[in-house]
UniProtKB/TrEMBL annotation:
Keyword Metal-binding on entry: no
A Pfam family annotated for this UniProt entry: Epimerase
Organism: Isoptericola haloaureus
Family: Belongs to the NAD(P)-dependent epimerase/dehydratase family. Dihydroflavonol-4-reductase subfamily.
Domain (NAD-dependent epimerase/dehydratase) ranges: 4-232
Domain of life: Bacteria
Keywords for this protein: Oxidoreductase
Record has Transferase as a keyword: no
Protein name, UniProt field: SDR family NAD(P)-dependent oxidoreductase
Length: 328
């Protein structure tokens, strides 16, 4: 059994990773940004002996101490705002600098095994602009591409920085997990931005349905992939897209209408020109506009084949998410 530092432990994915680690018998050290976040995580895992440390992606303070005595680093922490920032650097710099800060501290502490959480968004918008084809783990999003969001750019640049770092320090053994849009059950009411699309749909807050699609994966599968990859040296040096299948926003709305016939879920599919127009004045529509005309499907078959599991179907992940966020 290993002692594992999980960064960003109050995040939606990270809390499931912590549970998966504890269930497998590992010792967990969890990084949070504040006492409030610590209390949220501690309430989920009482009596489990989790050790907490406070870390910030933008500061060197505490990283050396946090990694002392650790066997494995699982780095999930990265900014994920609900709406695009005015300045993309507000996302890019913490993501890139925080990843490098974690890797440098790990290497200094002799922690050579690292699992990094990236995203399918670092894959599905390549520089060849072949928007219609299915992507693989060999593809890379063009960080400054015309359809690349600030979040996708931040994750792409952070992952590239991580691979460059391990190229320069070959003793580091890195595996990267690239989840699609992560749905599934929230462990508490603090689920951040991950389930916002579902919340907007099921509450009726999304009055128009953009014709955009996204790769979908259940958070329980994402956690499983992280922990199983951590223990499998055959995954070192590889990226593992985690994608159970693609759903469009109109398809999601239809699934939710069937499950919740009394909910005021939008039916009208917005024309692309309207979404592009709204994106100029409504920040939340900017991401939707950047996804129009894109096939975001990424081949996620390597993860279950290598790590021995079957994906939870995308519709089941969606319904589990809706059950978590829906208000009576």
């Amino acid at each position: 059994m290993s002692t594992v530092l999980v960064t960003g432990a109050s995040g939606f994915i990270a809390k499931h990773v912590v549970r998966e680690l504890l269930d497998a018998g590992h010792t967990v050290r969890a990084s949070v940004r504040s006492e409030r976040r610590r209390a949220q995580v501690e309430a989920l895992f009482p009596g489990t002996g989790i050790e907490f440390v406070e870390l910030d992606l933008t500061s060197d303070d505490g990283w050396d101490e946090a990694l002392a005595g650790v066997d494995v680093l699982i780095h999930t922490a990265s900014p994920f705002p609900a709406a695009p920032p005015r300045d993309p650097e507000d996302l890019v710099r913490p993501a890139v600098d925080g990843t490098l800060r974690a890797l440098r501290a790990a290497r200094a502490a002799g922690v050579h095994r690292v699992v990094l959480t990236s995203t399918c968004g670092a894959i599905y918008k390549p520089a060849d602009h072949q928007w219609s084809r299915r992507k693989t783990r060999e593809d890379w999003t063009e960080a400054d591409g015309p359809k690349t969001s600030a979040y996708e750019a931040s994750k792409t640049l952070a992952e590239r920085a991580a691979w460059r770092f391990v190229d320069e320090h070959p003793e580091m053994r890195l595996t990267v997990i690239n989840p699609g849009m992560v749905f599934g059950p929230a462990m508490d009411e603090h689920y951040g931005s991950s389930l916002e699309t579902v919340e907007q749909l099921v509450s009726g807050a999304m009055p128009l349905l953009p014709r955009m699609s996204m790769p979908v994966v259940d958070v329980r599968d994402v956690a499983r992939v992280h922990v199983r990859a951590m223990a499998d040296d055959g995954t070192v040096g590889q990226r593992f897209p985690a994608n159970a299948g693609v759903l469009s926003i109109p398809e999601m709305a239809e699934v939710l209408r069937r499950a919740y016939p009394d909910a005021k879920i939008a039916r009208r599919v917005a024309p692309d020109w309207l979404i592009r127009g709204l994106a100029r004045v409504v920040p939340l529509m900017r991401t939707a506009a950047q996804g129009l005309g894109l096939n975001p499907d990424v081949d996620g078959s390597d993860a279950p084949r290598r790590l021995g599991f079957e994906y939870i179907p995308p519709r089941d992940a969606l319904l589990a998410a809706a059950a978590s966020v829906r208000r009576p």
